[in-house]
Write a structure and sequence with these properties.
Bound molecules: cytidine-5'-diphosphate
Distance between the termini: 11 Å
Number of domains: 1
CATH superfamily: P-loop containing nucleotide triphosphate hydrolases
Largest sheet: 5 strands, parallel
Number of strands: 8
CATH class: Alpha Beta
Strand content: 15-25%
Shape: globular
Helix content: 40-55%
CATH topology: Rossmann fold
């Protein structure tokens, strides 16, 4: 029997990673792991505890101390728990989005979360999505994907999502937020957002989620 595949999906904000990773996982019967949700949960905990996002030591200690659970829900989505509390909606707030890249830059935070992510994938059978999955977390993945899209399209997707959740953001605000996050994520020293050299690049600007899923599933089939 073939070993269960391990699929790594990376890319900038709004490239469509979460939507397609969830659909691919459902289609292939794999576990979907949203690593961004883990960085967001640490950020929420830090904001609540009044920790300065520049205080790397305090952030690392916090990350090591909290329990983060990703629980698959009926519809293929995931509920996120922070020390037993459902924070699925809270981690998507504009405040968390504004601070998450500063928290994710802390080496100690990354070390702790990467360790947990590797162990979640140890048995195989996962679709893991983030910024450093193909490069750092799962360098030996069955197949690696790098999703991109034109910046205005990525901003519009995120804008629609925020409005759908009831946040009254403007398109300009959303665009500058994702641009700033991409800048910090791409320039940090540990686990920066880069395209893994062996990744399959998909420009999703003019693709539907279903088309992206088809492309990924086909590629995974070839790689096995
Ligand atoms: O908003 P979007 O869904 O694009 O982002 P996310 O996947 O929820 O990730 C939020 C933030 O977490 C990113 O902007 C990164 O700063 C950080 N992150 C990371 O550093 N490494 C990962 N593997 C995943 C997320």
């Amino acid at each position: 029997m073939l070993r269960k595949p391990v699929i790594a999906i990376d890319g900038p904000a709004g490239a469509g990673k979460s939507t397609v990773a969830r659909m691919v996982a459902r289609r292939l019967g794999l576990l979907y792991v949203d690593t961004g949700a883990m960085y967001r949960a640490v950020t929420l905990a830090a904001l609540r505890a009044g920790i300065d996002v520049e205080d790397e030591g305090a952030l690392a200690a916090l990350a090591a101390d909290i329990r983060i659970e990703l629980v698959p829900a009926e519809d293929g989505a995931v509920r996120v728990y922070l020390d037993g509390e459902d924070v699925t909606a809270a981690i998507r707030s504009p405040e968390v989005s504004r601070h998450v890249s500063a928290v994710a830059r802390a080496a100690g935070v990354r070390e702790e979360l990467v360790r947990r992510q590797k162990s979640m994938a140890a048995a195989g059978g996962v679709v893991m999505e983030g910024r450093d999955i193909g490069t750092v977390v799962l360098p030996g993945a069955t197949a690696k994907f790098f999703l991109t899209a034109r910046e205005d399209v990525r901003a519009y997707r995120r804008y629609r999502e925020m409005r759908g959740r009831g946040y009254p953001a403007t398109l300009e605000e959303v665009c500058s937020e994702i641009r700033e996050r991409d800048r910090i994520d791409s320039s940090r020293e540990v686990g920066p957002l880069v395209c893994p050299p062996d990744a399959f690049i998909l420009d999703t600007t003019a693709m539907t989620p279903e088309e992206v899923v088809e492309a990924i599933v086909a590629r995974v089939g070839e790689a096995r």
